[in-house]
Write a structure and sequence with these properties.
Length: 299
């Protein structure tokens, strides 16, 4: 069984039909069917359950899918490493970022592009679990994330901690006029409808804010849980309620209808870091970007 056949097998496993897989592979259906039969004969197992309308992997097929994905990823990384051996910094760098860290990316990218103008970027946004899955599949090389990194990865990952990010209150300007104080205390949030950043799986930031509220003797009046920073900011701007977010998030939202207030009596911060897989090959551009990001964060 060779790499070409592995690609054929993975296409069939993904599509669940030989016809669709053949179309994806730009080949005819009969040759693809023959290749599948040859693979099963060579391995001495049945790879797909053909009893339904779609092909389903047998336990042997599931094992082969896992191993094939891993082997093809290693093969592609080896090709990438060999090509880079005598080349300069160029190509495409794929980075993932959680929604609350997007505002940390522009400056490091700007500095990196000044030094390495031949590198292009692909940036994906999502929660820890989605980005962790993309990291394992090789779709991205690095993740900018809030710590601790909440994804359940079987592989070990490296974390480069960056400076912590203080939390601030984000409130409607109409309720807190510009000519007023630029600080508030935690207890003032008890009187406001509260919006919180939370997904079904990533809850660390939400829990940090709740713990700090409880430390000050109140339970916030949560009227909305939301996975999108942009939606929460829009709701605050509309006067629906207030929220607490890491200060760096607000640099991307200079909106007159909202005010960012320092919390005078809060004693909690959001930790941030770069995440990548420990045993996975990192391209030259990824390694240089880690260095530049760290330098910018510490400057």
């Amino acid at each position: 069984m060779d790499l070409r056949q592995m690609r054929y097998f993975l296409a069939i496993a993904k599509e669940g039909q030989i016809t669709k897989a053949a179309k994806q592979l730009n080949m005819e259906q009969p040759p693809l069917s023959r290749q599948l039969k040859l693979m099963e004969l060579e391995l001495g197992v049945t790879l797909f359950d053909r009893s339904g309308k779609t092909l389903r992997l047998t336990p042997s097929g599931e094992l082969l899918r896992e191993r094939s994905e891993s082997l093809l990823l290693q093969f592609n990384e080896t090709i990438k490493e060999v090509k880079e051996h005598n080349e300069g910094i160029q190509g495409s760098l794929s980075i993932g970022s959680v929604v609350s860290c997007i505002s940390l990316l522009p400056r490091p990218i700007e500095l990196f592009r000044e030094e390495y103008p031949l590198v292009t970027f692909k940036i994906m946004e999502g929660d820890h679990f989605l980005l962790g899955d993309q990291l394992v599949k090789g779709m991205i090389e690095l993740i900018v994330a809030r710590l601790p990194f909440e994804a359940n990865l079987n592989e070990q990952f490296e974390v480069l901690p960056l400076p912590s990010d203080p939390y601030v209150a984000v409130v409607p300007s109409a309720s807190f006029p510009i000519d007023g104080a630029d600080t508030m205390n935690m207890r003032e949030l008890a009187n406001l409808p509260f919006l919180t950043l939370k997904t079904d799986q990533t809850t660390r930031m939400h829990e940090q804010v709740l713990q700090e509220c409880r430390r000050h003797g109140f339970e916030p009046n949560i009227i909305c849980e939301c996975s999108s920073v942009a939606i929460i900011i829009a709701l605050v701007a509309a006067g629906i309620g207030a929220t607490v977010l890491p200060e760096s998030v607000m640099s991307a939202f200079p909106i007159p209808q909202i005010r960012t207030m320092q919390l005078s009596d809060a004693h909690f911060q959001s930790d941030v870091g770069l995440v990548w897989l420990k045993e996975r090959y990192l391209t030259k551009s990824a390694r240089r970007f880690i260095e530049r990001f760290a330098m910018e964060a510490l400057s």
